[in-house]
Amino acid sequence: MAPPRSRRESQAQTRERLMEVAATELIERGYRATSLERLAEQAGYSKGAVYSNFAGKEELVLAVLDQHFVNRLNILQEALLAAPETLEDRMAAFTAWWEGMVGEQEWGVLILEFASATRDRPGIQAQLADREQRILGFVTMLIEAEAERFGVRLPLTAHELASVLVALGSGLSFSRMLEPTIPIGVLSDLARILFVDLPRAGAPAGQDPVSPDSVIPDAISPDAISPDAISPDAAQG
Fold it and tell me: Domain residues for 114?
């Protein structure tokens, strides 16, 4: 017979279940149409269970968004670990991951609706902006690590390149909400131009590339790409 769960374990399980149901409800019904009463009922709990884990609907949505991105980071980690040790292959793994995120239109719609519905809530808007900066910081870190790994001379700073990619991804996500047939492959095309074509065009003739084995990419090691970095608790801080 399994030992009884502790209060902390029970609360963690309740929180996990509420977030799981909330993700489904939010994607299917949208932010405004999702009620905490229905969510609690679907999860098999009382409404009080929701408020014992989250301050309100907004905090629950932020936790769901954080968890979704953590899951996407895990997918990227697996893709990078499986990718061959070439710049082109690792770049292809990253752009495929990024295009996958942009292609999740239902999540883009949720984020847009949530941002619009809370536009008069400075605290919520600040938390959304903080999460955007976390994403930008992560992409910047990844670009810096890969550029060092392969000895790539970037045409712009890593932060500037990350800003371009994040902005393009956000713009494509919004545009595809209106016109789903807009091609998403432009992300891969731009990445190749920025990280392969332009650096090669500007490199001195006969320059020896840096061996990937000579640079340890700590910034994108399995330990570095950790859910703790953008966990709901860390993001709330």
Answer: 66-236
Query: H-helix or E-strand containing 51?
Result: helix 47-53
d(Cα 161, Cα 199) in Å, to the nearest integer? 13
Model pTM greater than 0.70?
Answer: yes
Question: In angstroms, what CA-CA distances link 1 with 4, 8, 10, 13?
Answer: 9, 20, 17, 19
User: How confident is the model over 1-17, as a mean pLDDT?
Assistant: 80
Question: What CA–CA distance (Å, rounded) separates 129 from 123?
Answer: 10
CA distance 50 to 57: 9
pLDDT (tens digit, 9 = 90+) per residue, 88-98?
Answer: 899 889 989 98
At 35, give phi and psi (nearest 5°): -110, 150
Residue with tokens 């870190």: 141
**Same domain (yes/no): 2, 72:** no
